[in-house]
Design a protein that fits this description.
The protein contains eight helices and twelve strands. By secondary structure, the chain is an alpha+beta fold.
Length: 383
């Protein structure tokens, strides 16, 4: 079965789901344990070498390397300038349009992408939930060899460490599926990778603490240092996630305003956001998906002669959907709509309803034993 974008829809058997979830659970446990052992304020230079920094996040590579000599092991740590809700909102996507829009806003040089399976989706009470298969292709960083694509099983949600600290997680692990083999994308080389992101509120600064642990299979004849720089550049795109999360909130506010036929106090915000996205895309040479996002912004801004009920609407991300399959065919948009001051109390009420972060207990909550995980307090970074 194929979706509207001609990518296959993959249906997982219970056995496949159990296998992928077991691997993700083990990977998450290992990452939580690594986080407990890693001292970001006193990096052991005999074990970790600095690779790249973006804003307040640093990436290091393992000096001893992995037990598998063909694998590069890397770690990242630091602070993202944004609330946890904005960070996760900018990363979460469970539809093909949402995936493409999120990748563009994060700064990926995306060529194509699709959500091939989504058997767990978010709900208003659990907005970070996702489990499924994603495929995306992009230009190889630093111009190394061929362009790359990746087919990954991903999980997002919340967990706790041994001391009861709540962490949000995002695991990505390369998989092989007969429905979407590597040769299905001519001119691309399939990248094999595994990465796990852990996020935690940093209350003192109102930022988000991040710990990233992952590995990537060496490819081609490129020098290992060049591969490390390329991978680090890709992983560091996560620092841009808050702007994507805020854009989704603006889009949801616009939808609420349209549904109530509220009159906006200004039409400058949609044009300003569309212009900023277009400028960012031009400066970094984005692909056709970036242009599609900008066009959607322009289409969404209503003219003075068009009523809000007849204006074309498009959304950055669809509302939470409990459906286990299917593809979203709505347009993408990064439009914000500022509401009049008389509606401020109603707007606050809408935000509290739509973005409720009192999540129910997550059945996918692996824990690390106390002996393995002496979780540190919040990072006190001086960078």
């Amino acid at each position: 079965m194929f979706g509207p974008d001609r990518c296959p829809q993959i249906k997982l058997s219970p056995e496949d789901r159990a296998m992928y979830d077991y691997a993700a659970r083990k990977f998450l446990q290992d990452t939580v344990a690594e986080r407990a052992k890693f001292n970001a304020k006193n990096i052991d230079l005999q074990h970790w070498a600095f690779v790249k920094r973006r804003k307040e996040v640093n990436i290091f590579s393992s000096v001893p390397g992995s037990t598998n000599r063909s694998t590069i092991l890397m770690v990242g740590t630091g602070l993202i300038d944004g609330r946890l809700e904005d960070v996760m909102g900018g990363l979460h996507c469970d539809t093909t349009h949402g995936l493409r829009t999120a990748k563009v806003l994060l700064g990926y040089d995306l060529k194509d992408g699709s959500v091939l399976n989504a058997h767990e989706r978010r709900t208003p009470e659990d907005p970070f939930r996702f489990a499924g298969i994603k495929w995306f292709a992009g230009k190889c960083a630093w111009g190394l060899l061929h362009d790359r694509d990746a087919l990954t099983y991903e999980r997002m949600g919340t967990t706790t460490d041994a001391r009861g600290h709540e962490l949000t997680y995002h695991t990505l692990q390369s998989i092989k599926r007969p429905e979407w083999p590597s040769e299905s994308t001519p001119g691309m080389l399939r990248q094999h990778t595994a990465s796990c992101y852990l996020y935690r509120r940093h209350h003192r600064t109102n930022k988000t603490e991040i710990f990233l642990w992952g590995s990537i299979l060496k490819f081609g004849s490129a020098p290992e240092k060049a591969i490390q720089l390329g991978v680090a550049s890709t992983w560091l795109n996560v620092v841009r996630s808050p702007r994507g999360g805020r854009a989704k909130q603006f889009s949801a506010l616009m939808d609420e305003a349209d549904s109530h036929q509220w009159m906006p106090s200004s039409l400058e915000a949609p044009a300003r956001i569309a212009t900023s996205v277009a400028a960012a895309n031009r400066s970094s040479g984005r692909t056709r998906f970036a242009r599609a996002v900008t066009r959607a912004c322009a289409r969404t801004a209503p003219s003075s002669t068009t009523s809000s009920s007849s204006a074309s609407k498009s959304h950055l991300d669809p509302k939470p959907n409990s459906s286990l399959s299917g593809y979203d065919t709505s347009e993408c948009s990064t439009v914000s709509m500022s509401l009049s001051s008389s509606r401020s109390s109603r707007r606050d009420s809408f935000l509290s309803r739509t973005f409720s972060f009192k999540r129910p207990l997550d059945p996918f909550r692996p824990r690390v034993s106390l002996s393995d995980d002496e979780a540190p307090d919040e990072l006190d970074l001086d960078w």
